[in-house]
User: Which sequence fits this backbone?
């Protein structure tokens, strides 16, 4: 039932059918005379759009990749602004081709340029200037029911850092994946930007920047803003799910612990990445010819001690403890490195979140390792079964590191370059197969093409991206009616996806 009439319908992408309105609807809805007389069917509109998109691909061939990606994003975004039904049909039918445009890796480029790309608002913006007003503001959103909210404060967008209000592109892209991959009703989703300022001086000096021009709020002042938002959201929509996205590490862990037992929420960087990585690690065990229970015997080097890396370690250690029945030894297979090298208990000023994974010197002296040992030292001496990167540092798995993985204690070592976007990937698929050898398991956070190894052989590239998990988390929570999301639920999802081939690029096998 539509309560709008005339031009208001044509300007509302939820209801607009463009030239697809039949004459009976044009009369009933006051549209006669506001559209060209010919009725163009939905199927014809679909074909026309795809021809335009393919023409764009042809005309931009040979241009820089970033220019082409943004051109593709623009044509899709214009359709999204105009006709959501057609947009999501196009997206669902062509998800393999369009996911890299509306999501990783193009979404990072969109966020970097968002103020210049902005044409029409989408989602809601709550800023530091709105304190005390959020409860009334939440009722400005026109949908009576919202099931899924993706929230960011723009402080750590992918591996690009603080992008302030421009980070809204991440919630928009994530929710498009919820609709296309999990079938969430597009009228019941809400992307949200919590703009508490930015410490990015370049943005503060940019005349086109659309956010609050002030340094980021900190401490209790920051938390009071998030508290007010969460209270407002769950007052209006008590059954909604809020997904926290791309918060810097200190706030990612703080807000997760603060809200997880009060509201239905999860942090995608801490828990979603952990779920996908755990599924990949369990899959690697099988690919290496071991039994799943042998996961506790693997040696895993994790490079990156941010929210994603520590989230992976937390969930993996819990899984190892459950499999072995011994929580005290569950951290032994894992070696954590940050920007200062191997993390041990000898380190001064160790981050409390990383402390549980710091190595005792007594455990590593036999390997000839020390506090702060470099990545190449650790790989050469540990000979890990798995090298997993969530560092955000492009190319950190350089030639020497990859060649050292040839000496792994596994005949089929696994290399996971999970950082986004593509330029932040720890290594490319081509380099991994070239330097680490053909007999590896490779997975990446950004999409890479399979590698031609010659002689008819192909190096298969698996994607280890949150998009293979978070739509299932949201949909599963909605269908089950769960009021909180526990670690056990996420581990169960990881193990289910692992047994159903988590890295298969066909979405149909991923979501129950």
Assistant:
């Amino acid at each position: 039932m539509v309560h709008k009439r005339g031009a208001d319908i044509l300007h509302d992408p939820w209801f607009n059918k463009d030239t697809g309105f039949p004459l009976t609807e044009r009369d009933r809805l006051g549209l006669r005379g506001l559209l060209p007389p010919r009725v163009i069917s939905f199927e014809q509109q679909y074909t026309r759009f795809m021809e335009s998109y393919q023409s764009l691909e042809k005309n931009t061939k040979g241009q820089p990749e970033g220019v082409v990606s943004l051109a593709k994003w623009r044509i899709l975004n214009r359709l999204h602004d105009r006709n959501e039904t057609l947009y999501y049909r196009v997206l669902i039918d062509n998800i393999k081709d369009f996911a890299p445009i509306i999501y990783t890796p193009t979404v990072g480029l969109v966020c970097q340029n968002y103020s210049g790309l902005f044409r029409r608002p989408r989602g809601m913006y709550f800023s530091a200037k709105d304190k005390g007003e959020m409860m009334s503001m939440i009722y400005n959103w026109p949908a009576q029911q919202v099931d899924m909210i993706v929230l960011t404060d723009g402080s750590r967008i992918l591996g690009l850092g603080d992008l302030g209000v421009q980070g809204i592109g991440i919630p928009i892209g994530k929710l498009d994946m919820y609709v296309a991959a999990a079938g969430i009703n597009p009228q019941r989703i809400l992307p949200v930007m919590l703009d508490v300022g930015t410490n990015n001086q370049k943005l503060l000096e940019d005349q086109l920047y659309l956010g609050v021009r002030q340094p980021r709020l900190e401490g209790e002042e920051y938390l009071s803003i998030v508290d007010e938002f969460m209270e407002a959201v769950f007052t209006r929509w008590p059954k909604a799910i809020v997904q926290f996205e791309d918060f810097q590490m200190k706030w990612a862990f703080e807000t997760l612990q603060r809200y997880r037992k009060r509201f239905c929420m999860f942090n995608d960087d801490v828990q979603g990445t952990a779920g996908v990585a755990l599924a990949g690690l369990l899959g690697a065990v099988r690919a290496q010819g071991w039994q799943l229970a042998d996961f506790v015997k693997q040696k895993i080097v994790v490079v990156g001690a941010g929210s994603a890396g520590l989230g992976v370690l937390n969930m993996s250690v819990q899984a190892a403890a459950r499999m072995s029945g011994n929580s005290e030894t569950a951290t032994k297979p894992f070696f954590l490195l940050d920007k200062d090298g191997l993390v041990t208990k000898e380190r001064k000023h160790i981050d409390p979140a990383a402390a549980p994974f710091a190595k005792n010197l007594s455990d590593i002296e036999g390997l000839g390792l020390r506090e702060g040992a470099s990545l190449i030292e650790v790989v050469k001496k540990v000979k890990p079964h798995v090298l997993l990167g969530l560092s955000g540092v492009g190319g950190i798995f350089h030639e020497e590191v990859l060649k050292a993985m040839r000496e792994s204690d596994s005949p089929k070592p696994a290399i996971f370059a999970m950082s986004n976007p593509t330029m932040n990937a720890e290594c490319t698929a081509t380099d991994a197969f070239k330097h680490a050898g053909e007999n590896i398991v490779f997975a990446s956070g950004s999409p890479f093409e399979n590698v031609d190894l010659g002689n008819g052989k192909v190096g298969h590239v698996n994607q280890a991206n949150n998009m293979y998990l978070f739509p299932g988390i949201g949909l599963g929570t909605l269908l089950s009616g769960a009021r909180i999301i526990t670690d056990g639920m996420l581990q169960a999802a990881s193990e289910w996806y692992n047994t159903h081939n988590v890295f298969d690029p066909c979405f149909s096998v991923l979501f129950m």
The two ends are 31 Å apart (CA to CA). The CA atoms of residues 428 and 448 lie 7 Å apart.
